[in-house]
């Protein structure tokens, strides 16, 4: 699909100002208003608004889910910040902020949501998918013991993250993944030189790190 641009951009000897500058492709669009200084740090301050009728139109492996986002974007030498973020993925609502400094080696994020359903972003169960398509199912296997953890027990590869210092806080009224659900989730994830620590509190779940 072709990329189209519309809107206004005016340049002076100090900065470039953008007014209703909109880029659109495959039905998705991004609109920005703000300015970029013509100085050594190239400080940029923008208000943005993004809308996509279907993520699947942008990438086949993504779910056919409507998405939108708005907020404030600021960048300068060694620093990128997103504030007043309000986003929607299908029925999921998200709000928060993001800060990247030191060449994205230091990351801080605050996210909150009344209900976050991650099911569409994970591979569908093969048995359920075949049944939905009307395909013949293979011979029934011996039932497997139900996993006692919400997420995979496979160890994460942390070596590529050894130089990253990150802090992520997520507060969620309900987190859904398939047939599993966590209520009143309040969690913190910390990455420090390849070491990851995680703690959470949730209704009906043991607290811990």
Number of strands: 13
Helix content: under 10%
Q: What is the CA–CA distance across the termini?
A: 47 Å
Strand content: over 45%
Structural class: mainly beta
Morphology: globular
Instruction: Let me know the average pLDDT.
Output: 83
- In DSSP terms, counting alpha (H) and pi (I) runs of 4 or more, how many helices? 1
Radius of gyration: 21 Å
Q: Which spans of ≥5 residues are poorly predicted at pLDDT below 50? A: 126-133
Element string (H = helix, E = strand): EEEEEEEEEHEEEE
Tell me what the structure shows:
- The protein is globular and about 60 Å long.
- The longest helix has 7 residues, at 126-132.
- The protein is mainly β.
- The protein starts with a strand and ends with a strand.
- The protein has one helix spanning 126-132, and strands at residues 4-11, 15-25, 28-37, 44-52, 67-76, 79-89, 92-101, 106-113, 116-117, 165-177, 180-192, 195-203, 205-208.
- It is built from 1 helix and 13 strands.
- Strands 1, 2, 3, 4, 5, 6, 7, 8, 9, 10, 11, 12 and 13 form a 13-stranded mixed β-sheet that branches.
Write the layout of secondary structure elements.
Blueprint: E1 4-11, E2 15-25, E3 28-37, E4 44-52, E5 67-76, E6 79-89, E7 92-101, E8 106-113, E9 116-117, H1 126-132, E10 165-177, E11 180-192, E12 195-203, E13 205-208
Parallel strand pairs: 8-10, 9-10
Antiparallel strand pairs: 1-2, 2-3, 3-4, 4-5, 5-6, 6-7, 7-8, 10-11, 11-12, 12-13
């Amino acid at each position: 699909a072709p990329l189209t641009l519309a809107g206004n951009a005016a340049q002076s000897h100090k900065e470039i100002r953008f007014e209703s500058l909109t880029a659109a492709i495959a039905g998705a669009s991004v609109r920005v208003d703000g300015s970029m200084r013509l100085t050594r740090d190239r400080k940029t301050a923008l208000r943005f608004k993004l809308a996509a009728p279907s993520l699947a139109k942008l990438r086949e492996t993504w779910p056919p889910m409507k998405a939108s986002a708005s907020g404030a974007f600021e960048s300068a030498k060694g620093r990128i910040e997103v504030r007043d973020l309000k986003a929607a993925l299908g029925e999921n609502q998200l709000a928060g902020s993001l800060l990247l400094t030191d060449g994205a080696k230091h990351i801080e994020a605050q996210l909150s949501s009344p209900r976050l359903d991650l099911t569409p972003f994970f591979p569908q169960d093969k048995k359920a998918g075949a049944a939905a398509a009307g395909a013949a199912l293979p011979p029934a296997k011996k039932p497997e013991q139900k996993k006692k953890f919400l997420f995979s027990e496979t160890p994460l590869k942390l070596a590529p993250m050894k130089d990253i210092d990150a802090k992520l806080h997520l507060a969620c009224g309900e987190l859904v993944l398939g047939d599993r659900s966590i209520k009143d989730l309040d969690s913190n994830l910390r990455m420090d030189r390849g070491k990851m620590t995680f703690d959470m509190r949730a209704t009906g779940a043991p607290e811990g790190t």
